[in-house]
Amino acid sequence: MKEEDWFYALATDQTALLQLILEYRWISPPETPTGSGSVFQRDGKVSFQLQELRELLCVALEHVHFAPCWLPVLLKAGLQPSLLLHPHMFDHADSDALNYLLEFVNWTTLPGGLKIILERRREEQTWKPWPHFDTITSLSHMCRLQIRSMLGPDLLMRTSIVQQLPVPSPLHCFLQFRDIQEPSYKHSPLSNQIQRHNNTHQHRHVL
């Protein structure tokens, strides 16, 4: 997939195309070699090449206004949340979308530059953090981050392997981050987004 293809999947408030793509393509773990000529499959899905993943992230960061739409889909499909810990994301993402992303990481160990952006946005009242972000990360959250790190986000989020873990069944949704409220999207006409894309598109360095 090319950058132009990702534009139609991500620069919109509709997620049907993105979900369709993810029915046939696999976001492989970062350590999986996906260079040119490397084709990996799992459950009939072909893994994204490294360049495809770079272009996905570039377009996603270019259109952070639509993050409330594409962010939950990508994270549930196994995208590594750390790939979105980017200054542009923290500068421009909607408050709810940013809070949603922070729930997938250890927010107390963010890089200093990102913390500075958050503090500025808090002062400007363009970001309203959820109350528990001002407290020490809970042990339960640390545990699920560690489990995801060991299993990999794709395996944890897209298969029933979590049901095989020696934990009570009520914790399954928690371990898959399904207890987190998804962000809501504030409507903006797609035509305006297309015009801004054509006039101000800027490639962002990721991966």
TrEMBL record:
<dbReference type="InterPro" id="IPR036036">
    <property type="entry name" value="SOCS_box-like_dom_sf"/>
</dbReference>
<feature type="domain" description="SOCS box">
    <location>
        <begin position="128"/>
        <end position="181"/>
    </location>
</feature>
<dbReference type="InterPro" id="IPR001496">
    <property type="entry name" value="SOCS_box"/>
</dbReference>
<feature type="compositionally biased region" description="Basic residues">
    <location>
        <begin position="198"/>
        <end position="207"/>
    </location>
</feature>
<feature type="region of interest" description="Disordered">
    <location>
        <begin position="188"/>
        <end position="207"/>
    </location>
</feature>
<dbReference type="GO" id="GO:0035556">
    <property type="term" value="P:intracellular signal transduction"/>
</dbReference>
<dbReference type="Pfam" id="PF07525">
    <property type="entry name" value="SOCS_box"/>
</dbReference>
<protein>
    <submittedName>
        <fullName>(spotted green pufferfish) hypothetical protein</fullName>
    </submittedName>
</protein>
<comment type="pathway">
    <text>Protein modification; protein ubiquitination.</text>
</comment>
<dbReference type="GO" id="GO:0016567">
    <property type="term" value="P:protein ubiquitination"/>
</dbReference>
